[in-house]
Amino acid sequence: MAEPPYPMLLPLLLLLLHFPFLTSAVPLGSVLYASGSDQSWSSPNSTFAVSFLPSSSPNTFLAAVYFAGTVPIWSAGSVDSQGSLRLSSSGSLQLINGSNNTVWDSGTDALGVVSAAIEDSGSLVLLNNRNKTVWSSFDHPTDTIVQSQNFSAGKILRSGSYSFQLERRGNLTLTWNNSTVYWSQGLNSSFSSNLSSPSLALQTNGVVLMFDSTLTGGAETIYSDDYGEGSNTFRFLKLDDDGNLRIYSSASRNTGPVSPHWSAVADQCLVYGYCGNFGICSYNDTKPICLCPSRNFDPVDVNDRRKGCKRKVELSNCSSNAAMLDLDHTRLITDPNDPNSQSFFAGSSPCRGNCLVSGVCLASVSMSDGSGNCWQKQPGSFITGYQSSSVPSTSYVKVCGPVLLNEPLVGSKGDGNNSKVHLWIVAVAVLAGFLVWLW
After folding, report:
1. Can you give the pLDDT at residue 293?
2. What topology does CATH give the domain 144-266?
3. CB contact at 8 A, 119 and 131
4. What residue intervals traverse the membrane (predicted)?
């Protein structure tokens, strides 16, 4: 058999298949390694790229399409430092961990995929031999929608326990744990009653429009507060891991930085479950912090107060020594659809006393808004609270006595307190000393 011409070309081609590509064309067999921070697949205008970024968990890396070098807009998931993202010879894009297990798969085997590309819009696409899109990251969003991306009813953004979706009747909703809707915004009834297949798109001027065959020109639903500013501004809509939906803007498409210009929930403490089970959300200066109701509880994780609190002693171990912890100006946020939560009319004293003597009540809330409502939480309830001087309710939590009130709030990095308080105390002490010296 005759020797093939240019025998050294084959090894060279195989080597190139595993080399980082800086253009939009990514052939079958291409690989990005989590440990190769200099590797990427880039869009033609270099605004977007696919690579690995450090993840929020230690020693893990996020396989992502990112903007401005560090801002992920779509992700396949996280792996350890030995992981990789591969465009297999069979046409599937796969995220593989260091144990050679598949963490994520595009599911495009046998669909004729011959290459991948990163478009200037930010979409990662898999293409067939006719250059037609077989799979697109825009059709499988994770937690972000960018300009020119269509987000239709049925698609969902997810971040931890939180999700965002456009319902077929035109409502935008934020949901916790696939069950509790804590934010909703929709069109008026004259529009929503006639919708057939609604979709959303973030415009380059900072307006979110809802489109449908029944809506001429689209209906405006959200305005970014930098609406119309900057001819080169890049914007995206992101569901953050704190459960809030925000519009972010960057003055430059290539360098960032990004800043928020709209949020769905103006008061972060009203994001359901933000501080976890039995966690109480409050504010130190302008920053939300998470506390336990009292020293009868411990944080589930002292390094992450958002994971909630647990009882030091379970109620089942102190049935004869139960007591009620009074939390003034505190609302234990209630999901009206929670089967383990009951509402009835009662004053504050009966609301508190009935829970104390009840064998199944964990906590109660007495509303001071004129409604006279009393909510009781039973086993199985998720209990999350908001404490502020403006909250018109008092909450009661059953604990094993004696009641151990929290110490006065002291600033610390772990719970987000502001060191300005300490600087003020120091300044007052210095001034007092100086006055004493003058005297």
Report:
1. 97
2. Agglutinin, subunit A (2.90.10)
3. no
4. 421-438
